[in-house]
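Predict fold of DUF4191 domain-containing protein; 233 aa.
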Amino acid sequence: MARKETAADAANPGRLKQIALTYKMTRKADKKIGLVLAAVGIVTFGVFLAIGFLIGHPIYLGILGFLLAFLATAIVFGRRAERAAFGQMEGQPGAAAAVLDNIGRGWTTTPAVAMNRNQDVVHRAVGKAGIVLVAEGNPNRVKSLLAAEKKRMNRIVADVPVHDLIVGTGEGRVELKKLRTTMLKLPRVLNGPQVTATNDRLRALGDLMSNMPLPKGPMPKGMKLPKGGPRGR
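Predicted 3D structure, encoded as tokens:
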């Protein structure tokens, strides 16, 4: 029992420190966060307290108002902190990968499955909606990356739907803050075992490619491939 209390006491300072750090980071992008939270808490508590006096139960409604004011303040703080975080991440390399890592259960993400010399990148997520390719970078350049990766996925897992999204602002693109919501709204066409099988096939392909022996240096002149070997299509 004592050990559990000690662990809880040790966790509380860390949690409070994390909340304070989140507040400081949010305040850099949202200067009015303190006033907004104070207004939400005071108004919520004041409304319930006033109702309590009107019906003759100020203590009960005051306690309820205090709890609901705390809850409303926490909800508003969470939403504004999330908005500020997305605002700071917008346009930063790897921002989409960070969102995919926190998309939730049922999804397996693989960052940077395709990339070009300009650091445009494509990430892959596998879930009950199928395979989702998420690109970030120049919209004109990432289209070719997406097309090549989508073609490769169709060859490997032809029976699994492949969706493609481009993160950014503008027509035909998905804002970073809406990426998670957009993916969760995709129709679910696979069950759990099918998702697992798809991940296994993609993982096996990755292992095969990484373990494939490659010749070192240029091929010697005059050397011919053995009959029956692979030929170009």
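The first strand starts at residue 108 and ends at 115.
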